[in-house]
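Minimal example, chain plus pyridoxal-5'-phosphate.
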Amino acid sequence: MSKIYNFSAGPACMPESVLKKAAEEMLNANGSGMSVMEMSHRSYDFESILKDTKDTMRRLANIPEEYEILFLQGGGNLQFSMIPMNFNQHGADIINTGQWTKKAIKETEKLGRVHIAGDSSDATFSYIPKITQDDLDPDTDYVYICENNTIYGTKYKQLPPHEGKRLIADLSSCIFTEPLDVTQYDLIFAGAQKNLGPAGVTVVFIKKDLLDEQRDDIPSAMLDYKTYVDNDSMYNTPPTYGIYMVGLVCKWLEEEIGGLAEMEKINHKKASLLYDYLDHSQLFSNPVAKEDRSYVNIPFVTGNADLDKKFIAQAKEAGFVNIKGHRSVGGMRASIYNAMPLEGVQALVDFMKKFEEENA
Ligand SMILES: *Cc1c(COP(=O)(O)O)cnc(C)c1O
């Protein structure tokens, strides 16, 4: 099989050494004589994996003790419901930056009041609305954002003002792509399948005192963050294999990459390589406001739908797979998360240059 580079937006490529380690341990994890998949979640072996995964995350992002690390299921999408179900008492300020906040708004409206504090739908979500404290509704409990907009390729470089309110953020596509100051937030969530591991596990960092502000009508233990806090994410059977993989990815970040600051340097280098080319290309362009550009999801177009299609087909043949843009926006998108090596981005840029010459 020839080398391929996988630019999928999620589930996405994983670090090769992590996959190798998982393969090595597939039949006999840590001398247990069994696969992690076969372990009781109540066993000493699995409990050590859970603890080790949490400890590694805490070290990586300096997560203080006032924050709990939780592992849930239901993806990012369940968080769109659980957040208002637990914390929307008086309303939520939501900044609308694309498909993922639209879904959050829809779920939040079912459960309480929503105030749209900013909205970039007027320009196909190609920028991040820069709001001030005055744009917030004085009565809401929290401000909600999607920090990196996977589909449109925008990213907050500065968090919005939220004085007197909690800040809740969807970091599904940017978690651990750069240093993270958890103390700036009250709740962070991320589906693992972009930067942390396989689909099926959602990581939540929650400030413990947020639990003092829960609604009293949460319909089920499984929808109550406190259940996960009180039971160390093991009220029911947690996604054990996913948690193990998240642990391996975090160890890779720590030991092979050298931490989040190093990861950020590599990610910026990768992103600059592609943006620099896009900004000079006569054929391809990126539609996003420069100051709001994502480092990990980079959409681009030729401006001609047929040529886009031709590019996607030829790219696939050359080993650059999953480069088609999201069905809602068309064009192309290169998702270059942590696990995409610099060589992959360089090879893509070389291929784009060649395509541009041939189609000038
Ligand atoms: C992928 C993604 C989601 C959706 O996650 P699911 O696990 O499919 O529910 C939510 N938010 C963002 C920013 C995403 O990139």
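The pocket of pyridoxal-5'-phosphate is lined by residues 10, 75-77, 100, 146, 150, 170, 172-173, 191, 194 (CB under 6 Å). The CA atoms of residues 308 and 331 lie 6 Å apart.
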